[in-house]
Amino acid sequence: MITDRSEPSTAPQHVDQHIVATGDGRGRAFHCVPVTLGTVIAYHNQLIEMGENVTENLRITHLASVPDVVPTLVRLFIEEWEPYYGHEGPGNAEHDLRECLNRCELPLALVALDADRNVVGTVALRSECFGEQEGEGPWLRALVVPKTHRGHGIGTLLTASIENEARRRGFPAIYTTTDGAEGIVRRRGWQPLRSAMSLRGVCTVYKQDLRKGD
Ligand SMILES: CC(C)(COP(=O)(O)OP(=O)(O)OC[C@H]1O[C@@H](n2cnc3c(N)ncnc32)[C@H](O)[C@@H]1OP(=O)(O)O)[C@@H](O)C(=O)NCCC(=O)NCCS
Fold first, then answer.
1. DSSP conformational letter for 71
2. Mind listing the pLDDT tens digit for each residue in 9-49?
3. Are residues 159 and 186 in contact, defined by beta-carbon separation less than 8 angstroms?
4. Closest atom of ligand 1 relative to the 180 alpha carbon
5. 77 HSE (CA, 13 A, CB side)
6. Which contiguous run of DSSP H or E holds residue 5?
7. Cα(15) to centroid of ligand 1, in Å?
8. Residue to mutate (ligand 1; options 84, 149, 152; most atoms within 8 A of CB)
């Protein structure tokens, strides 16, 4: 099932919710519609197939619109990146997340919420990244989906969503350094540039050209 391909490619500037689903065919976007197994979602003209765990009213919104979920995300960050955000690590998850409580300027973050408003994923867009070289950025960072919700397309959808956040701000390209989302970014056409070292070991720097299809 293809829900709709008619969502405008440029969203109204102050609309802060990217409801997973589509416009109404008359240019009004961001309606919540049920997303069922096999549904193909048109998100800013990009089609994404959703898996069976993504059931109803999944929506993606700015973290700034739902700041009360920060503690949940802190726990998710600590669980996923314990060496960095755990007690012994140098990172401060709450600080890094609260920095992202922006809708316009960077850093910002998107959050995927299910129908019961449970957090089912997040991703950030930041100006800087470890291993960066001059002229690169912005960066897709901190993409994470809870273990219980993986493998159903949420990570892919968040990646597409943050690409659109960068595109809407006029950036010609977006970069990421990842060892965990290589399948997602490669399938979406990101190009590998070089290797870089992270706390988890060697990972790859990728670039996505946002002007493709212009
Ligand atoms: C990386 C991560 C965000 C992916 O989230 P996710 O929601 O599982 O991502 P997706 O479901 O879109 O894709 C994951 C896999 O499921 C598969 N998949 C997606 N939709 C599917 C569907 N409908 N049916 C079957 N498989 C599907 C994808 O093909 C993909 O396979 P691959 O990893 O072999 O390429 C998640 O694994 C995670 O949080 N990892 C830990 C943190 C991390 O490594 N982050 C990235 C570095 S910043």
1. H
2. 333 333 344 444 333 333 333 333 334 444 445 444 444 54
3. no
4. 44
5. 25
6. none
7. 27
8. 152
In the chain, how long is the greatest CA-to-CA distance?
Answer: 53
Alpha-carbon span 29 to 4, nearest angstrom: 11
Peptide bond into 138 cis (omega under 30): yes
| Ligand 1 in reach of 183 Cβ (< 6 A) | yes
Q: Is 152 in the pocket of ligand 1 (CB under 6 A)?
A: yes
Distance spanning both ends of the chain, measured CA to CA: 27
- pTM, two decimals, is 0.81
Domains of the chain in start order, with CATH, are 17-209 (3.40.630.30)
Q: Residue 27 Cα, ligand 1 centroid: separation in angstroms?
A: 31
The reply to whether ligand 1 has any atom less than 6 angstroms from the CB of 151 is yes
